[in-house]
Amino acid sequence: MSGLVPFDDATLIDLSIGLEDGPPSEPMPPSIDHFGHEAGAERLAENLRELGHDVEASDFPDGMGLAWEDLEVIPHAGTHMDAPWHYGPEVDDEPAKTIDEVPLEWCRGNAVVLDFRSKEPGEEISVADLEDTLDELDHELSPGEIVLIQTGADELWGTPEYLTQFPGMSAEGTKFLVEQGVKVIGTDAYGFDKPFTAMGERYVESGDEDELWPAHFAGREVEYCQIEKMANLDALPRKTDVPIVAVPISIEDGSGGWVRPVAFVEDGAADDAVDGASDEIWGDDA
Q1: For 172, how many CA atoms within 13 A lie in the half-sphere containing its CB?
Q2: Given its phi and psi angles, is residue 22 left (phi above 0), alpha (psi -120 to 50 degrees) or beta?
Q3: Dihedral (Cα; 187, 189, 193, 197), 10-degree rounding
Q4: Second label for 67, Cα 20 to 30 Å away, from 103, 145, 174, 256?
């Protein structure tokens, strides 16, 4: 299949993890305070009184106003897109784009899912790994495609292991994908690079600064965005030609922004995948 699936004929698959209050899978977890409808009535009444209107909370229907939440959260919590500015101030001697400068055209296209669930936690995904997986799919990347790295780590969401049990991209692998015309690369793991512990151990052993966030810092040489903390890639009915939209929230001069990637697939196709017909769907017909 190529092109977008018509809305009337599509099943939408959510590929994101939302913001939660204090999950153990976030080293800097969001803090979310919820305020109910009674508190909403008090707040709205107070706002109106500050404008000179004599209104009490009891004046609202059933004494209830509007619910709301107060959040304290970084833009790299939950599923989010990193902008080129996140990696460094320049890309190939040009100013790096902040998240509000990322072209919307980059944020939609056909996705290619590369399955690396067989890789060990802490391993790097090399150019050879990428080429071998693309060969298995009999797929050649084209400009504008979105590559999704499947590690299976999303199954560990909500546990401390989510932060450590996944492979990461290499610098050369990242540059290889971007050089094929890919502008957005996603992963279902906590991070795009190896886990913090693996990078730290290798740096201490070798003293080589290239062990520290190599895939991120590849973005100082080639221009791309990455989506971290995706989910549900196993619910997709095939590994190529999956239309997705992943538009980040615009934060002025931001290094990243929250995003809710959504895949559009033909009605029934996603159900078939979930029902276990993976051999047929993910095989030569992909």
Answers
A1: 8
A2: left
A3: 180
A4: 256
Pairing type for strands 124-125 and 94-95 reads unpaired
3-class secondary structure, 183: coil
pLDDT tens digits, one per residue of 12-32: 999 999 999 999 999 999 999
Contact criterion met (CB below 8 Å) for 251 and 99: yes
Q: Find the DSSP H helices in the chain.
A: 37-50, 84-87, 127-137, 171-179, 196-206, 214-217, 269-274, 278-281
- Phi and psi of 242, rounded to 5°? -105, 105
Q: What are 165-192's pLDDT values in tens digits?
A: 999 999 999 999 999 999 999 999 999 9
Tokens of 102: 């990322």
Written as six digits, the tokens of 165 are 């049990």
Burial class (CB in 10 A: 0-12, 13-18, 19+), 226: buried
pTM: 0.88
Q: Is the dihedral of CA 159, 209, 173, 260 positive or negative?
A: positive
